[in-house]
Amino acid sequence: AQVSSLIKETGYPPVLLLDEVFVHLDNSRKQYLTDLFLQSGMQVWITATDTLGIEALANKSKVLDLT
What we know:
Blueprint lengths: L1 H9 L4 E5 L7 H14 L2 E5 L7 H5 L8
Parallel strand pairs: 1-2
């Protein structure tokens, strides 16, 4: 809701920095966030220990492997 409000208010999508945002979500909520991130035009930085369950997002993103 806050992201939508910022976009309406400023006309620009925000940059999001999210730490392990997908860890405790079920598949439908992971899909919702994936769709939101891909369709919104936002720049999103996400940390994750692996891409299991978020392959759709990872396949359409720049992934930096720091191992």
